[in-house]
Amino acid sequence: MTAQILDGKATAAAIKTELTARVADLKTKGITPGLGTVLVGDDPGSQKYVAGKHRDCAQVGIASIQRELSATATQEEIEAVVRELNADDECTGYIVQLPLPKGIDENRVLELMDPDKDADGLHPMNLGRLVLGEPAPLPCTPYGIIRLLREHGVEIKGAEVVVVGRGVTIGRPMPLLLSRRSENATVTQCHTGTRDLAAHLRRADIVIAAAGVPHLIKPEDVKPGAAVLDVGVSRDENGKIVGDVHPGVAEVAGWLSPNPGGVGPMTRAQLLVNVVEAAERSAATS
Ligand SMILES: Nc1nc(=O)c2c([nH]1)NC[C@@H]1CN(c3ccc(C(=O)N[C@@H](CCC(=O)O)C(=O)O)cc3)C=[N+]21
Fold first, then answer.
1. DSSP letter string over 101-112?
2. 140-264 domain in CATH 3.40.50.300?
3. pLDDT, tens digit, for every residue of 39-82?
4. pLDDT above 90 covers what percent of the chain?
5. Structure confidence by residue, pLDDT tens digits, 211-241
6. What CATH number does domain 29-114 carry, 3.40.50.10860, 2.60.40.1930, 3.40.1180.10, 3.40.30.10?
7. Ligand 1 pocket, mutate which of 49, 55, 238, 256 (most atoms under 8 A from CB)
8. How many CA atoms lie within 13 A of 105 on its CB side?
């Protein structure tokens, strides 16, 4: 048996086509969505991700606003850029690329963002809205994963889902989304304190591997036919992506997200969705 591919690249392309029409419609109402990015430092990986986000924007007609600061930027300098984007009417949504350099208080920067311009859905106000079930921008990777599963007809309702990891961008918000009535999954969250990870994995209909540990998920721990999402992006000595999922899992799983080409493109597409939806919300209230 070989797993069917959860094709993030193709699904993201379809989402972008749909967004292109919505952006064109907003423009007829005099609104041009604009995505801002704040990049601090010169990490090649981060530069590449941010460049990809601006390429996506160009494809769907969203304006791009780029702010770059040196690796030695101070807390005050970063906060000044955040205040500037909060006030900039052309910037309808933005992200602060994480992680920020050591010594910078990341949470203080995130809390300073205008929650209505938070394209990542990571502002405390929006994480709170998610808990309360109020409309909010949804965290990009978790919601991208749900759309990827839906698009391929993988049943989420009633499924036993194991999320591995508890990071702020994926592991922590993922169970919040999956346990909403609209998804109705039963979720187990595993992390480094989990006593017997394999025992949990073997029961899972859906595994979401977001631990950042290369090849953590082994074929012998996956239930035959399960859907496995590989969210990890570690790199080997040649800079090649190594996921959290061992390649042998493809012989056991029913569905598998390739990496690259799976969750990454969905994350980027969902960021655009958040920008367009924020612009649509402001169009409705203006
Ligand atoms: N505030 C913030 N928001 C983020 O969303 C955020 C962040 N900070 N910091 C870093 C991580 C990482 N991330 C990725 C997005 C897309 C791909 C992606 O599209 N990857 C391609 C391949 C890229 C390659 O080959 O290197 C793929 O999976 O096919 C990867 C990683 C977003 N992040």
1. PTTS-HHHHHHH
2. no
3. 999 999 899 999 999 999 999 999 999 999 999 999 999 999 99
4. 96
5. 999 999 999 999 999 999 999 999 999 989 9
6. 3.40.50.10860
7. 49
8. 8
